Amino acid sequence: QVQLVESGGGLVQPGGSLRLSCAASGFTLDYYAIGWFRQAPGKEREGVSCVSKFHITSYADSVKGRFTISRDNAKNTVYLQMNSLKPEDTAVYYCAARLNVCSGYVTGSQFRSWGQGTQVTVSS
Fold this sequence. Notes:
Layout: E1 3-7, E2 10-12, E3 18-25, E4 32-39, E5 46-51, E6 57-59, E7 67-72, E8 77-82, E9 91-99, E10 118-122
Parallel strand pairs: 2-10
Antiparallel strand pairs: 1-3, 3-8, 4-5, 4-9, 5-6, 7-8, 9-10
């Protein structure tokens, strides 16, 4: 019954903003790190950002300064605020979980309970 559901994607112009949500059911986020990942056609999955159980955050160099990850344990939800979006941010965005910390988020190999993804398209 463990499930993560992403939402908030859509079409936005370059320079615009979106906020993605990752809602958990079947477990509470208190004990988990939640990572955001993306995959564009023909490219490998890329770790975008992660927030640990201890609310420590990590970002890929490509999004640092533009994206902000946060968590609201009371709502059992993790958010990804995406500002100053670029066409190269276009991808399907996924969230996934692992216990405690964000180790390995760059590849996501140790993360589980992947959501279904939400499409982000940045285009004029």
